[in-house]
Amino acid sequence: MDRCGGKVHLSKQLAEAHLSEQEPLLRVQGLKKVFRSGESDLVLFENLSFEVKRGEMLAIVGESGAGKSTLLHILSALDHASAGDVYCAELKLNSLSGDEAAEFRNRDAGFVWQFHYLLPEFTAAENVAMPLLVRGRSWAEAAPEASRWLRQVGLEQRGHHRSGELSGGEQQRVALARALITGPKLLLADEPTGDLDGQTAEAVFELIARLHREHQLTSLIATHNLSFARRCHRVLRLQGGRVEEIRPESLPS
Asked: Is residue 19 very low, low, confident or very high in pLDDT (cuts 50, 70, 90)?
């Protein structure tokens, strides 16, 4: 793995892969996740294998407890699988050290949770800028980027407000801007509209879809909303520890 001044450069490695649109950005091979429960093992899922091509919007559906969130955590190097491999381009995520996994998440993967996890003591602009500040950029450098991304999610005029002064939909828009400010190619969203009312959820999903198109993202969205899943390019269903692909048009609207 390339290093310079003691730091790994995962973004460079991904960029140099020169993937075509028909080649997978993500490859999952024989994935298994086991949790210890008392004196026995709980197998959440096993032998999961699938690929996600560049530019695809993939929905992951399944009942609560099926493992959707855990799968997204593994795909973003937030968690480790018990067995199997995950590749982003040619980068083997399950072989990364803790520092390397943190850099991958900071530079190459954006994550949006059901809860926004905004820092309440900071403004919307400061929350959006946080990934750049963590990277070592100065506020003078990060602030214009934060303003640009707030503009992209329709909240440029709310940048000076703290999270508690924002509505639920606005908070989730700020979280989305924060996830994308580093310019990742991979967006992972875990029930991003789960805490929102129907109209607000629709607006947030449309925003995700628009940013996906405009920024040529590869997006994986875990959702209970089958109407939203139906509008994705592909749908994977987690059920009984296995994964199967189903046709989006077969889902209820």
From this structure: very low
